[in-house]
Fold this protein.
Amino acid sequence: MRLVTDGGSCIDYLYRIREVGGGIWNEVVSTNSSEVFENLEICTTYEWQLRTKCQHLDEDDWTQYPIQIYQTPCCLVYCPQLNVDTKKA
């Protein structure tokens, strides 16, 4: 899953993702306005959130955006984009 922002005047980005109902966030701090989360489980619902640190804010101030929901694809037999045969799982 690729998360992309418009950049703007932001200097740091904190991307975080977890399974819905999960406890610990998988967090990545980056200076890039996009981030890729790989190895997500198929047919699983995740929540993700972006936080940004922009030039006009104090060093410890992060802008926090609402949590978003993402559902990974579900494949009934064979999912070529994931190279997964779910009949063998």
Remarks:
- The radius of gyration is 16 Å.
- The domain at 2-88 is CATH 2.60.40.10 (Immunoglobulin-like).
- The mean pLDDT is 76.
- Residues 43 and 83 are 14 Å apart (CA to CA).
